[in-house]
Amino acid sequence: MTDVxxxxxxxxxxxxxxxxQQDGISIDRFIATAVAEKIAALTxxxxxxxxxxxxxxxxxxxxxxxxxxxxxxxxxxLPLP
Length: 81
Fold this sequence. Notes:
Blueprint: H1 10-23, H2 27-53, H3 57-65
Helix pairs in contact: 1-2
């Protein structure tokens, strides 16, 4: 493990204390989890962007054209406003 020291505004620290306590975990663990979640989100976003670059709009349209144009089953319909 690596020790890291940084400064937080008091308001953020108080929120951090409350949220960590509500989750029943230490502040250190809360911060480590938050950092891991942020890294995962950014990594996933980059992966999806790279994957999208490999796609083909023509191939997408061809596959979408194979989907029948029919009304969805009653259980699968969107509710009306």
